[in-house]
Design goal:
This protein has 336 residues and is α/β, with parallel strands linked by helices. It contains 13 helices and 11 strands.
Length: 336
């Protein structure tokens, strides 16, 4: 089998690097997500803690649109941070940031939710793409992860890591489709290393995937988050979206306001005050934690599942002519 890398991303706004540390120690790429962090000193302290407790490959995710924060953090990045994931930004800003990181010999991945942005990443010289589909938490694509992967892989030659809806079965599908790896985040929320507050863990443990929804699609900036009837933080954001839709200001200004308002509300305390940017894959967290317990256990379980699924597919050839499903439907191929 070819190499298939697992990236473990801390949840948005969580500055404690425990998940990333455990993932790197287990042979994955542990990444500290600082996209929604404002405090530069807290960010640098978390990076120092990450690099202190692991000697393996690790990384950081940064909001490429927050130029001042980006510049200050990049200038202080520990040498051990091998991977930097960047989010969407103005092409000129993105080009400058990629060049600055290239001078530091970092691997640079660009999070993308569409073909245009993926092609921009290829143009500015990033090393890979994080293909973030509709199922994921935070800012997402209008297309599902697997559909988006298949579309991008036809037009872009960069390696791609898939984020959104990844479980034991879909990881193998991404491998087969040609992805370089997958990204795990909410799947790890209930592992032993997770430092989320107990009420948050209890809510995630009950999830079946239907508890998340996207806000902001009408603004061209959809964000997926946890919700339930009557949540004040979600209701306030929904009202803001309706107000912004009716605003006659330039679309770029509206999008910037929307992103800023979402960012200001991200947190993991009371869901009445904070937004929990969780994707549908949070529904896998309870079963994965029960079966594998630790971050390292989940990563190894993923690797074993990928190997087993591929071997099974080769042996059974489920999409072959006259396969069992085809015969049961009276068709030549098992495709309806």
């Amino acid at each position: 089998m070819r190499e298939f890398q697992l990236i473990a991303l801390t949840l948005p706004g969580v500055t404690h690097p425990s998940i990333a540390i455990a993932a790197s120690r287990a042979g994955g790429i542990g990444v500290l997500d600082l996209e929604y962090v404002w405090d530069e000193q807290a960010a640098l302290a978390s990076l120092a803690q990450l690099t202190k407790y692991t000697r393996q490959a690790c990384g950081v995710k940064l909001d490429a649109g927050a130029e001042s924060f980006m510049a200050n953090v990049i200038s202080e990045l520990p040498e051990q941070i091998a991977v930097v994931i960047l989010t969407r930004a103005h092409p000129l800003s993105l080009h400058r940031q990629v060049q600055a990181l290239r001078r530091q010999n970092r691997r640079i991945f660009l999070e993308t939710s569409g073909l245009e942005h993926a092609l921009l990443g290829e143009e500015v010289g990033v090393d890979g793409l994080i293909v973030k589909g509709h199922e994921a938490g935070g800012r997402v694509s209008e297309e599902t992860s697997f559909v988006l992967l298949q579309r991008l892989i036809k037009h872009v030659s960069l390696p791609m890591w898939v984020q959104g809806g990844i479980g034991l079965h879909t990881a193998a599908a991404c491998y087969t489709a040609g992805a370089a790896g997958v990204v795990l985040d909410a799947q790890l929320a209930l592992t032993r290393e997770s430092i989320l507050p107990e009420p948050v863990k209890a809510s995630i443990a009950r999830m079946d995937g239907s508890e998340t929804r996207c806000l902001g699609s009408e603004l061209g900036e959809p964000y997926r988050m946890y919700t339930r009837p009557g949540l004040l933080a979600v209701q306030a954001l929904q009202q803001l979206a309706q107000t912004l839709v009716a605003d006659s200001s330039p679309r770029s200004d509206i999008a910037a306001i929307w992103r800023q308002e979402v960012r200001a509300r991200v947190g993991w305390d009371d869901p009445e005050r904070h937004l929990w940017l969780l994707g549908q894959e949070a529904a896998f967290a309870a079963s994965l934690a029960k079966r594998f317990r630790t971050v390292g256990g989940v990563l190894e379980g993923m690797r074993q599942a990928i190997t087993a699924h591929i071997q099974t597919a080769k042996a059974s050839r489920p999409l072959a002519e006259a396969a069992v499903l085809a015969r049961s439907h009276g068709t030549r191929y098992p495709i309806v």
